[in-house]
Amino acid sequence: MATLDQVRAALTEVMDPELHRNIVELGMVHDLAVQDGKVSFTFALTTIKCPLRGQMQDDIRTRLLALEGVDDVEIVVREMTDDEKHAVFGKPDDKPHASQFNHIKQIIAVVSGKGGVGKSTTAALLALSLRRQGYDVGLLDADITGPSIPKMLLKNPPHPRGGPIGIMPVESGTGIKVMSINLLLEDPNQAVIWRGPLISGAIKQFYEDVHWGNLDYLIVDLPPGTSDASLTVMQSIPVNGIVMVTTPQSLAAMVVRKASSMAAQLDIPILGVVENMSYAVCPHCGKPFEVFGPSNAGELAESMGAPLLGRLPIRPELATLADQGEIEAYDAEEFASLAEKLVTLTR
Predict the structure, then answer these.
(1) Domain holding 34: CATH number?
(2) I want to staple 301 with a disulfide (CB 3.0 to 4.6 A). Which of 36, 38, 308, 329 is the partner?
(3) 164/329 Cα distance (integer angstroms)
(4) Closest C-alpha to 244, from 218, 217, 290, 276
(5) Angle (deg, nearest 10), helices 196-208 and 228-236
(6) Are 57 and 44 in contact (CB under 8 A)?
């Protein structure tokens, strides 16, 4: 029969893949007991939404069941308390921090499976429509290597200035608070050639070190796909829900399902699906044409268990205004009902 020391030794072989330390050293193992061939303990994760918890639990069971006399393993999962986190990672400093003074009611991430589907445009127009309805809105550009929000919203964007407790976001003409890596670069055409950890760190800073103040909605424009940056947002920022952006092509729908799968694994609700570039309207006869093929947005939304928030047309004038930094001059008529649906869903 395996002893408590043997069980604990086996658990020291289980590594947290992100922190590169074993789970015993990290203080994740609590209430360990061995009785009648059964090992039981509480597994305290740094975040309950950890996408790798299943992988670690499988590793735990494999190693423990390999011990002589162990035929059952019971694992109770919970999140670490603040004191437990401080014991492992150290306490934060005591100086005033921007996040202490931010009061954000709803954080909505705008996500796509692939690039080129108009995700950033959708995020910007969603923020604009909410602002026009009287809400206090912020727009966080989390696409660090491909930022486009400042170009669309700000004709001559200033650099953010430092405040007494954090970085002050830049405000657009209608009062949307904006933060993007492009606002910090001397040359907006300069490439941001960073590895994953630096990108993830910048995103966390844009949320924690920026003095957003009181917001009804913070819209987060994520980079396409399911990379480090997307994972950072969904794990480090308390996202209330996700809006998925796709286009009629089956390829776009296939890849957006991958992003949907990621959201499901992290237990973040999908608030709805937006099909962008769904059709174009003939300027002469007013007839709609499905340029990229018939819509499959309804079926896609149904497969995700989410509502279809809207089908958006191709508007040449929108592209022109975005290129000129004047997207707030766009009437965004089709976004008004979309924003209203979103408000209803987040009440």
Answers:
(1) 3.30.300.130
(2) 308
(3) 33
(4) 276
(5) 30
(6) no
- At residue 235's C-alpha, the angle toward residues 229 and 237, to 5°, is 90
111/239 same-domain check: yes
Within 8 A by CB and 6+ apart from 334, the residues are 310, 312, 313
Query: Can you read off the two tokens belonging to residue 162?
Result: 């430092």
Q: How is 120-149 classified by DSSP, letter by letter?
A: HHHHHHHHHHHHHTT--EEEEE--SSS--H
d(CA 163, CA 185): 19
Q: Are both 188 and 146 inside the same structural domain?
A: yes
The DSSP letter of residue 81 is: P
Give pLDDT, residue 42. Answer: 96
The CATH number covering residue 300 comes to 3.40.50.300
Distances (CA, A) of 71 to 23, 116, 317, 325: 21, 52, 67, 65
Which two three-digit tokens encode residue 118? 């108009």
Residue 34: its pLDDT value, please? 94
Q: What is the pLDDT of residue 95?
A: 56
Give pLDDT, residue 107: 95
Quote the CA–CA distance of 171 and 183 in Å, as a whole number. Answer: 11
Residues 12 and 104 placed together within one structural domain of the fold? no
d(CA 122, CA 335): 9
Which of 9, 2, 12, 13 minimizes the C-alpha distance to 39? Answer: 2
For the entire predicted model, the pTM comes to: 0.72
Hey, how many other C-beta atoms are within 10 angstroms of the C-beta on 328? 22
Number of domains in the chain: 2
- Residue located via tokens 């590594």: 15
Write out residues in the chain with pLDDT < 50, as ranges.
none
